[in-house]
Write a structure and sequence with these properties.
Blueprint (H helix, E strand, L loop, with lengths): L5 H11 L1 H20 L13 H30 L3 H29 L8 H34 L3 H4 L4 H29 L1
Helix pairs in contact: 2-5, 3-4, 3-7, 5-7
Pfam families: DUF420 (PF04238)
Protein name: DUF420 domain-containing protein
Keywords: Membrane, Transmembrane, Transmembrane helix
């Protein structure tokens, strides 16, 4: 026995293999999303919340998205101001908000399926579906980027992050994440408020 804890070995492994760990975590996360979207997860395995709760999820997710837009923006501003502890807190909060959004979205989707667009066919074809498609694409692309940046951030002290791709990839991830959340709010407005 060398005195190294299993937690220390795991942390060291994640630090030395950040890209692979992030890739594996991203594959698991996206696999779960695609399993729910594809109907592989049967709704019967999930406890069913009251209808009022299920109906409130889209509005709650819009609020979570708006909160995430604020925390991501503040996190980026903190990083630019070189206040990295504040940046770390805001980005951890953003990650928590994203996880909450995803859990609520997937739960409702598994139980109720997708919501049909109720507006005119032209608006659906030329506005709603393109906005939805870009939102979904960016959300999918963001997962491995965000997971990689988080893997780097959680396995190193702040001073060591400057020697990694954290800043470069983080800027791209934050920008795409912001656009994805903003488009998600647009989808909500079109689907639940306008039509």
């Amino acid at each position: 026995m060398d005195g190294t804890s299993s937690g220390g070995r795991v942390s060291r492994f994640a630090r030395e293999h950040s890209l692979g760990v992030a890739g594996a975590l991203s594959a698991v996360a996206l696999g779960l999303v695609f399993a729910v979207v594809g109907g592989v997860v049967p709704s019967t395995v999930l406890p069913r919340a009251p209808s009022a709760v299920l109906e409130a999820i889209p509005t709650a997710n819009a609020a979570v998205s708006l909160a995430a837009i604020v925390t991501i923006t503040l996190g980026v501003r903190a990083a630019r101001a070189r206040d990295f502890e504040t940046h770390r807190r805001y980005m951890a909060t953003s990650t928590g908000l994203f996880a909450a959004f995803l859990a609520m979205y997937l739960y409702r989707l598994a139980l109720l399926g997708t919501t049909d667009f109720g507006g005119p066919a032209a608006v659906e074809r030329f506005v709603y579906l393109p906005v939805l498609a870009v939102h979904i694409l960016l959300a999918i692309v963001c997962v491995p980027l965000v997971v990689y940046v988080l893997t780097l951030a959680t396995t190193r002290p702040i001073a060591d992050l400057f020697e990694t791709a954290h800043g470069r990839i983080g800027r791209v991830a934050a920008a795409l994440w912001l656009v994805s959340f903003a488009l998600g709010v647009v989808v909500y407005v079109l689907l639940y408020l306008v039509y």
